[in-house]
Specification:
The structure is a homodimer. Chain A is α+β, with helices and mostly antiparallel strands. Chain A has helices spanning 25-35, 42-45, 79-93, 113-130, 185-195, 211-221, 235-247, 262-271, 293-301, and strands at 51-55, 58-67, 73-74, 77-78, 97-108, 133-142, 150-159, 175-179, 227-229, 250-254, 285-289, 310-316, 323-326, 332-334. In chain A, a hairpin with a 5-residue loop joins strand 13 and strand 14. Chains A and B meet through helix 1, strand 1, strand 2, strand 5 and helix 4 of A and helix 1, strand 1, strand 2, strand 5 and helix 4 of B.
């Protein structure tokens, strides 16, 4: 008597899959089905990059992020610098000035101290550069094989400024969509480091602190900065889809205007990736009314991080909830949200 | 030609070891050698259960903790309820009223959704019971074998009350040392669940929200509550050693007064553990001036969690920095801090 065995693994829907951590549709589904029903409150329900609460008359933004990037070290940074940049940028995207950070480490038994030292040192340096104080922390150690080197959670506290509340639901038809720099560098840097690939030009992660750009946009357009978003997991495509859905608007991108470095484009072609879905860690998207687009671009370009800032599209009142790309050859295609991962464990 | 091979693993000092996560001497050493040098600031340097900062004239306590308990579910709770209790209790030990919580999840691919659902549901229930709002979260997924089911970081925000600032450095000679309930239940519950042991009486974790006890102590003794501490990792022995060191005082415990349930005592004897080093998650230590000991004990006993509250010792000006135990047979012994773990991954 023989037992029938399925030769390929069947995707089950009763277990966590890698795609649930992608920042795409599966992540959104997991959040909606498994987490939100247990935590009903108005602040969480807004699902911004950070939560905003009132403390004694001061609006305070709070954001948390756990970093599981693989490998731990990559061109342009390591998990320590990334853990600072990622969280302070989430605060900055709410318009908040980052001030405090907590850090929770899970270390795998056997992690070489020299790796840990480089990670913690980069973290300290990034915190100083961001002007934030790391004020409390926690360290746990698990047995060899029960983690992957280091995981770091950072939770950040930022202070909101009066009359400056960019949000994912505030994009309006007529807004210009700006991007502060070239796309796709973080994801490709991670991928090449992970797989030991070598391209002609080494691609470094763009991991950086975005608050200085936010300050400049605030000076240029104040309350008219409708929406800010750092397109990390899931890239520009996922970030714009979330904004289109939250604001109930359509977004039209103009392909030739999207700044993609030739090295990133070449790597994406070779690896079969679409650069619009590749993670960035030092780039922001800004939505401002069309008449403020040029002053805002000038403000961004005045900072080294924003030197290559560009206008890549506009908000439209047709196709609400949808992002379309006007291609170089005159066609259009829908830029949907991916269900799962192009690149797992990118941050 | 043969190569010499050492038959037993040598403890190296260039890698992370399990004991570095114990909450004992090795943890303290890791913190001092590897973390603090990179993050110099006055708030972090205080190394309390939580950091306290000023926001617009309101003192705010912030605490972070990552939970890696194994197994995920145990008698009396699971990693979800523990992740809420652990962090809100750290805030409460600073005298702060817990108000907000963030949660960062690392999920292992393949985790059954029914386990996740029970964890998240317990978390929601614990948050509601604690009166805290979970306002922001993050979820990452790593490949099978790169984590151990679920790790959860929670970071909590609490509001300090005026004139109520218990702290580890405020214990004074003449203080009575109170404990709010029987010791050792969490650690033994975890250990029996992990090893599949069965004792005559099932021992449940004491995991619980301690803030209601803190409120009662505040009502009874106000600013005279010198020190509060929840003796988690490393147990009562480690907590008292930290307080003795931070306050520069000696602590004398009276062994027959220490409430250790017979089932815990029996399990400890069988497993070779000292109950003073076993973790608790629903017990607090309080230091108050001797004349306030009875009113404070009465206040604790008026709450179900504090029913078995007891006075277990006193602060002395002899042997500063040292904890001694006056035994039942009239001797004394030093209760030192352990270097590493009795029980790894207890929280």
């Amino acid at each position: 008597m023989s037992t029938l065995i399925c030769p390929t693994p069947i995707a089950t829907d009763d277990r966590v899959q890698l795609g649930h951590g992608s920042g795409g549709k599966m992540s959104a589904g997991l959040l909606k089905a498994r987490f939100l029903p247990h935590f009903t409150n108005d602040v969480l329900a807004q699902l911004g990059d950070a939560a905003v609460v009132d403390v004694n008359g001061q609006e305070v933004a709070i954001s948390t992020d756990t970093f599981v990037v693989n490998p731990l070290e990559f061109p342009g940074g390591n998990i320590g610098s990334l853990a600072v940049h990622g969280t302070v940028n989430d605060l900055a995207m709410m318009g908040a000035r980052p001030v405090y950070l907590s850090a929770g480490f899970v270390l795998e038994e056997g992690l070489p101290f020299d790796v840990l030292d480089r990670v913690v040192s980069a973290m300290g340096e990034a915190a100083r550069a961001a002007g934030v104080l790391l004020i409390t922390g926690d360290t746990k150690v698990v047995e060899r094989g029960k983690a992957d080197g280091v995981f770091i959670n950072t939770t950040g506290i930022g202070l909101m400024a009066p009359d400056f509340t960019p949000g994912p639901a505030r994009a309006r038809p007529g807004d210009a969509v700006l991007v502060s720099g070239p796309l796709g560098r973080h994801g490709i840097a991670i991928m090449t480091a992970r797989e030991g690939l070598a391209f002609e030009a080494e691609i470094e992660s763009d991991s950086a602190i975005l608050y200085p750009l936010v300050e400049r946009l605030r000076a240029a357009a104040g309350p008219d900065v409708h929406t800010l978003r750092d397109p990390t997991r899931g890239g520009v495509a996922s970030a714009l889809n979330e904004i289109a859905a939250a604001s109930g608007v359509g977004i039209a991108l103009v392909e030739p205007h999207i700044p993609i470095p030739p090295a990133v484009a070449a790597a994406c072609e070779m690896l079969g990736f679409d650069p619009l879905y590749v993670a960035n860690e030092g780039v922001l998207l800004a939505f401002v009314p069309e008449p403020l687009a040029e002053p805002c671009l000038a403000a961004l370009r005045a900072h080294p991080l924003g030197r290559d800032a560009a206008r890549i599209g506009r908000v439209v009142d047709t196709h609400p909830g949808m992002v379309v790309l006007e291609t170089a050859i005159g066609g259009t295609r829908v830029v949907d949200m991916l269900p799962g991962d192009q690149l797992p464990r990118i941050c």
